[in-house]
Amino acid sequence: MARRRQIYEGKAKILYEGPEPGTLIQYFKDDATAFNAQKRGTISGKGVINNRISEHIFTALQVIGVPTHFIRRLNMREQLIRQVEIIPIEIVIRNVAAGSLSKRLGIEEGTQLPRTIIEYYYKDDALGDPMIADEHIACFGWATQDEMNDIADMAIRVNDFLSGMFAAIGIRLIDFKLEFGRVWDGDYARVILADEISPDGCRLWDIKTNQKLDKDRFRQDLGGVEEAYQEVARRLGLLQPEDESAVLDFDTHRKKRGR
Ligand code: UDP
């Protein structure tokens, strides 16, 4: 069989040509990076878990009418997606102060924000994904005002949905990152949700203990990284019973290691 054509390789995923025009295959790697790729490592099994978590979330979002690039999961590490023209903006939605917001503005991590904040970052590794304002987006033509209105509306819907979904399994959605892409229908362009939603791009804290169940465990060398990703999947009901028996109970594991 001819090797399929690789279209793009990112930090956590590879995109291959899909079986039909307008489709791509998204392959989830175990590679992890942080701090603009200055820190690199692997999180064993992460690709498999993120593939499942992202499938679960994108499917649920489609049910409530948020259009996404997701078509179907193909196997443990791959999903079939619609090819989109990626809008070069990372949308960050924040409910609770953490990460760069806490650092830049001196607001203590864990402070509940009085209202949800949406921030925009220009997707450019060489520039370190700088934060930008609406004005920059319009000025440099990265997206139209209509597209940005649609994106902000969808981001708020996704936030409301995910906040409830995670709260139901004892997880507080602190903040997360979304990416959107354009699909063309003749001369008419439409914006849909793209990329992935997984513990790589979300801050997820246990509601009772504030334990971090996301990539901050990797960023901050907290240990228990694999277990944290598995715990999110387990609470979402995505691990099979045979997988579950293999998964160490997250709390017991951490206590054993004295963390
Ligand atoms: N995020 C991401 N990719 C990035 C930058 C941020 O997925 O390139 C996510 C991150 O996981 C967090 C949220 O966006 O859930 C806000 O990140 P923040 O601006 O606090 O940056 P960080 O502290 O992660 O550098």
Protein model, in words:
The chain is an alpha+beta fold. The chain folds into 2 domains: 6-84 and 225-246, Phosphorylase Kinase, domain 1 (2-Layer Sandwich); 87-206, D-amino Acid Aminotransferase, Chain A, domain 1, CATH 3.30.470.20. 32% of the residues lie in helices and 32% in strands. It has helices at 46-63, 99-105, 134-139, 145-167, 216-219, 225-235, 241-246, 250-256, and strands at 6-9, 13-17, 23-28, 31-34, 39-42, 70-73, 78-82, 85-86, 89-96, 112-122, 131-132, 171-185, 188-194, 202-206. Strands 8, 9, 10, 11, 12, 13 and 14 form a 7-stranded antiparallel beta sheet that branches. The radius of gyration is 18 Å and the shape is globular. The mean pLDDT is 94. Bound molecules: uridine-5'-diphosphate. Uridine-5'-diphosphate (UDP) binds next to β9, α2, β12 and β14.
Stated plainly, the CATH topology of the largest domain is called: D-amino Acid Aminotransferase, Chain A, domain 1
Which homologous superfamily in CATH is the superfamily of the largest domain? ATP-grasp fold, B domain
Overall SS class: alpha+beta
Q: Give the beta-strand count.
A: 14
- Which small-molecule species are bound to the chains here? uridine-5'-diphosphate
- The CATH architecture term of the largest domain is 2-Layer Sandwich
Count of DSSP-assigned helices: 8
What is the overall silhouette?
Answer: globular
What order do the helices and strands follow? EEEEEHEEEEHEEHHEEEHHHH
Q: Over all CA atoms, what is the radius of gyration?
A: 18 Å
Helix content: 25-40%
> How many domains, as an integer?
2
Terminal residue distance: 49 Å
Largest sheet: 7 strands, antiparallel
Unreliable spans: none
Mean pLDDT: 94
